[in-house]
Amino acid sequence: EPSTPTAGAARMAAMENVIVLVNRIQRACTVLGDHGGDGAAASLPALWEALPSVAVVGGQQSSGKSSVLESIVGRDFLPRGSGIVTRRPLVLQLHKTEVGEQEYAEFLHAPRRRFTDFALVRMEIEDETDRLTGRSKQISPVPIHLSIYSPNVVNLTLIDLPGLTKVATEGQPESIAQDIENMVRLYVEKPNCIILAISPANQDIATSDAIKLARDVDPTGERTFGVLTKLDLMDKGTDALDVCFYFTFFCEFELIKDLIMLNTCSSR
């Protein structure tokens, strides 16, 4: 049966309703202690793990993962710093509002507080992370739920996961690299999880931790999207087109179903 504008609009409306429903179920799961993995009901099948999701996976520090998320939102709101900055999963729920309405953010753990200053959103993420993990740079699988309401976003839920690392820093157990990988795998191994694999253009793509992990859990690339960042930080004398071609070739034939290239500006 041929598609019509009316039928297309109806399908889009139905999809929007599904996204809203999934958002509500995710929030309910967190309140009830069901966040998958090591949650309170780990011995039972987790409803959280049955829900569709989009997981953002990056390699070590400065892969451009935060810049990708902030580009999608159009706001600077994520913590910055050295070492492992993301130490708890951040479930980022975007809600599109009417044109002209003020942008604001809300946290599930602080339902009566509305944030219009996104610098305070960053501080709240840091404080809520420290509340469970302390200042010892430990990690926790318990997610932080952040909802952003804005006319400049689309209805979408993204899960920001801790960046993959190889070496423990001061105050972290030697097992931190494996602990983070295990946490990330809990999300990306799900067959209904879409993976955004972040790789910076100023590093060797063939050794990308994010792509390596994505290839491991999704060898056919049916649910993985490659995201190439930091094209503006490539070494002098290198050709951006060559890097993009190599990335596209590498992903198309070995891993990734599609390609998103994001040029994140530096302060240099």
UniProtKB/TrEMBL annotation:
One of its GO terms (cellular component) is membrane. Gene3D superfamilies: P-loop containing nucleotide triphosphate hydrolases. Residues 49-268 form the Dynamin-type G domain. Keywords: GTP-binding, Nucleotide-binding. InterPro entries: Dynamin, Dynamin_GTPase, Dynamin_GTPase_CS, Dynamin_N, G_DYNAMIN_dom, P-loop_NTPase. CDD domains: DLP_1 (cd08771). GO terms for molecular function: GTP binding; GTPase activity; microtubule binding. Pfam families: Dynamin_N. Belongs to the TRAFAC class dynamin-like GTPase superfamily. Dynamin/Fzo/YdjA family. This is Dynamin-type G domain-containing protein. It comes from Aegilops tauschii subsp. strangulata.
